[in-house]
Amino acid sequence: MQRILIVLALAILLLPAPHLSKPQSVRAGSLLVRARPLPLSSIDPALRRAGALDYLGGWVLESDNAGFGGISALMVSGPGQMLGLSDSGVLTGFHVGPGPERRRPFIAPLPVRAQDRYRPWWSWDAESLTYDPAIDRYWVGFEGLQAICRYGPGFARVEACRTWPEIVAWPETGSIESLARLPDGRFLAIGEMGMTADGRHDVLLFDRDPAEKDTPAPIHLRYAPPQGYRPTDAVALDAHHLLVLNRRLTLQELFTATIAIVDLPERPQPGALLKARTLARLAPPLLADNFEGIAVGQEGGKPVIWVVSDDNHEFFQRTLLLKFGLRGEQ
Q1: pLDDT tens-digit profile of 159-185?
Q2: Which structural domain range is residue 186 located in?
Q3: 10, burial (CB in 10 Å: exposed 0-12, middle 13-18, buried 19+)
Q4: What are the backbone dihedrals phi and psi of residue 273, each rounded to the nearest 5 degrees, phi first?
Q5: Can you give the pTM of this predicted structure?
Q6: N or C: which end of the chain has fewer CB within 10 A?
Q7: Distance between CA 266 and CA 71 in Å, rounded?
Q8: CATH number at residue 258
Q9: 13 by DSSP, 3-state: which?
Q10: Which of 92, 96, 53, 95 lies closest to 73 in space, CA to CA?
Q11: Which of 318, 320, 323, 310 is nearest to 71 (CA)?
């Protein structure tokens, strides 16, 4: 009975309705984050591998700042230098692991346009984040608002926002959880519960900036996740591969996740199928939680994969940050 109640509570938390436990307002300022190292496995502390991935480290993150947590999207700007975005529209910058900090830890709300200041805090359900280092611009996907917004350097201001009918057609309870910028300048968005007629996840491929009003309509592709899972985030590994984080909630295991890789066709035709190949499964006895964010960095000339969990600002969940290396050719 206790497990059933936990599953029901967690399922409710996945809905976009405002949670009273979330902070209603956050002021920009410094941030202190405690990072406690964790083994990958609860029964084998020496285990250093999950599927095709090498376990490079993991931490449970905690802070006394009430605005910390609820991280739904993640970026890495250098070794251990993280930028998280919560589903309340709050940015948190912090550092984990060895090496010097490149900037001081901070917390700050996303800027909003003047015409959007009337919206309640809980409407800024930010679920996805991507970045173009060449022009120092950020893009955020919002559920509820069903919009994609572009932000200037350092998130100083909102530069453009656009609501797409293709995204509005997705359920607000499972919309734009995944937004990735590809190296050639295209953008790819995956609907968590936006489905095609054949039961695949709807994918939108934009040939340029999806926040701009003159960008043409995207083409529709299809995504096939590992069986029983739904996509919660995606990031380009390189020009030919996409990494997708997928989540499942069951009575037996509660939250589990898979990290999958997708081969990207050079010129996909409308309706093309993007099929996931599982690299690793995060389920007990391995570390498991409500993983929602994935990011890729470079260390020593090799890709490093990071995943983060959303604790929903609840006492019975945790903010876990895991670091993996890609093993061999995929």
Answers
A1: 999 999 999 999 988 999 999 999 999
A2: 2-115+122-326
A3: middle
A4: -95, 125
A5: 0.92
A6: N
A7: 32
A8: 2.120.10
A9: helix
A10: 92
A11: 310
